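User: For my dataset I need records formatted as: sequence, then structure tokens, nothing else. Please produce one.
Assistant:
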Amino acid sequence: MCLIVFDWRPDAADGPLFTLAANRDEFFRRTAEPMHWWSEAPGLLAGRDLVGGGTWLGMTRDGRFAALTNYRAPHEMRADAPTRGTLVSNWLLGEPSAESTPLAYLQRVAQDGEIYNGFNLLVGDWSRRELGWYCNRSAAAPALLAAGTHGISNAVLDTPWPKLARKRTELSALLANDPLAPLERLIELMRDPRLARDGELPSTGIPLERERVLSAAFIESPDYGTRGTTALRVVANATHGEHLSAAVAERSDDNGSHRVVRPGDFERSFAFNIER
């Protein structure tokens, strides 16, 4: 997952609590399963990386959530580093308890953060109304996020790379006009192939031509690109005792057969109530 924009309203008594739009960028040769309820953990909804065994974004029926992006630092990459996707699945598969909070989990991850290649990790618990962030390439300690509209790409939270700044602004404008905009609108917002101008590009240690390709929100290249787009909304309903519900839609280039079709047009959607 390489571009995430989200709106977080933890104090919402009625209406959207959390709204997210995210693109997963990956090599086309890397096999994965699309979003589904996992057979060995029926309460877990996520895709699955069939190489590393983890996932890039997922949620549970009891209100836990996590998502991951890689931190772009090509000269620091280690082939022997553990897979980062298990940082998401470990939180989602863990047994809930009074001590199992997003911040406590991120603090445990941070104790061994240096053994992984660079990553950003979002961890949330909608029932607790807590959402935390940690990056193992940032000097900042794990922290809970305040209300607001944020974005993560392949640098630390809210680094204003052109595609992040554009999509964060567009998400904010869309929700200001329609807080319950259809999930399909969120997906279309992310399917944007426009490239940044050379003067706006970050310098991350890769060739300029590659920086140009990766500057699009929706990436297209012969061997690498945006493999799927996810839209997610969690809504509070005060008339039903602070009842929470989640709706998620995914559009990807793989219908589960592991044959990549471009542009991706395989769609699936899920809706469920948060079980406290």
